[in-house]
Write a structure and sequence with these properties.
membrane, 16 helices, mainly alpha
Length: about 425
């Protein structure tokens, strides 16, 4: 085996940096509904999620093997190609985090890997059947399956709890929501941390430090788990706000149904080796749960922006990665130039984000969330014709301005009064 080269070290560090962005980008998947319903305090929620992400990273390597052994042909793939793929994925993660859109970190990584591999070795470097069966089809099916399951679970929950004591039921659902949020966090570590494991393993094989078809070494599993846990603990508050309040308003019953449905879909896909997007699964479950309550609504303008981001993720990350790979082909100075660009662009995005800080202190600020989603025409019209709330007894005519008093011509003026 060859020695651990400098470029290979750069690739490993960049992969862990991607895993870090994956953690804070996808914290919302596990904890947004728990935070928005008040089941857990924001900082407690992200700490719990971080620990379970780390535990989940050790449960399976099936998804890692899908990436390192199945998606692209590992023969002829150089470490520079993988570095370029990570550049595309990281920049897309940061851009969507900046605007608060819950796009898929998984698909950003897949798109980056596909774009860099095609730029390096041609279209034949991508295994089309694996791309379709284990990436694209799950991307479409996951939000639909999770959404339908959450919708049915929400309606069943409300139906079964119709005669239950309100406070006791709410307390029970909050406890169940905490448990289901932990399950989503565990599933997230099982699925998403493995993608970085697969990328690092692929880089080690490409650099000659591992034999072909090797499983991820223990140090790779530990490093990926720690990186995603640290990112999760810092909290992607912008995306938590969108997922928790921007899509719909959830009650504890709905939050419990959404998280349980999403966790089931994610864990099942991890067992089958599908490189599933946890973002797609949780977003679909949140929308399904939003529609599962009588009178519940989904803010479709926010959902539409999210769908557009989903559709752009693969091609956008692939394009950036392909450009980065082309520059890396110019030699060591080209790779250095790409690295400098990545650091500078990341710093610029962070600086822009500081203009409007979103953190654990204002992530569930209803005024701010509502300002981002104006009321529709129907909502405004209904509010205009709604009767006053019960118990309001003030005279409605008092809201009209009183007419101006007309002076009495017979009355003496102040100037003539002695």
């Amino acid at each position: 085996m060859e020695s651990f080269s400098l470029i290979l070290a750069i690739v490993v560090v960049t992969a862990l940096a991607f895993d870090f962005t994956n953690g804070f980008h996808d914290t919302a998947n596990a904890m947004a509904t728990t935070i928005s319903t008040g089941a857990l305090k924001p900082k407690v929620a992200v700490a719990m999620s971080a620990v379970l992400n780390l535990v989940g990273a050790f449960l399976s390597v099936e998804v890692a093997n899908t990436i390192s052994k199945g998606l692209v042909d590992e023969t002829g793939i150089r470490p520079e190609v993988i570095f370029a793929a990570l550049v595309g994925a990281i920049l897309w993660n940061l851009l969507t985090w900046l605007v608060g859109l819950p796009s898929s970190s998984s698909h950003a990584l897949m798109g980056g890997l596909i774009g860099a591999a095609v730029a390096s070795a041609g279209i034949g470097a991508v295994n089309g059947d694996v791309l379709v069966t284990k990436v694209l089809l799950p991307a479409v099916a996951a939000p639909i399956v999770a959404g339908v399951a959450a919708l049915l679970a929400s309606r069943m929950t409300y139906s079964l709890g119709r005669k239950a004591d309100g406070k006791a039921a709410a307390k029970g659902y909050r406890a169940g929501q905490i448990a289901s949020a932990g399950l989503v966090s565990l599933a997230h570590g099982t699925n998403d941390a493995q993608k970085t494991m697969g990328i690092i393993t692929l880089a080690l094989i490409a650099g000659g430090s591992l034999a072909p078809d090797s499983d991820p070494p223990v140090w790779v599993i530990l490093g990926a788990g720690l990186a995603i846990a640290l990112g999760t603990y810092l909290g992607g508050w912008r995306i938590i706000r969108t997922m928790g309040k921007g899509l719909t308003d959830l009650q504890p019953q709905q939050g419990f149904a959404a998280q349980t449905s999403a966790a089931t879909v994610i864990l099942a896909s991890s067992h089958l080796g599908f490189s599933l997007s946890t973002t797609h699964s949780v977003s679909g479950a949140v929308m399904g749960a939003g529609l599962g309550r009588k009178g519940g609504v989904v803010r479709w303008s926010t959902a539409t922006r999210m769908f557009v981001a989903w559709g752009l993720t693969l091609p956008a990350a692939a394009l950036v990665a392909a450009l980065a790979e082309w520059v890396c082909r110019l030699g060591d100075w080209g790779t250095a130039l790409v690295a400098v660009f990545l650091v500078a662009a990341s710093f610029a995005i962070w600086r822009i984000s500081r203009r409007e800080v979103v953190d654990h202190t204002n992530v569930v600020d209803d005024d701010t969330v509502g300002a981002a989603e104006p009321a529709g025409v129907v909502t405004t019209a209904m509010a205009a014709v709604s009767p006053p709330p019960a118990g309001v007894t003030e005279d409605l005519t008092a809201t009209l301005p009183a007419p101006a008093a007309t002076p009495d011509p017979k009355a003496p003026s102040a100037a003539t009064t002695v």
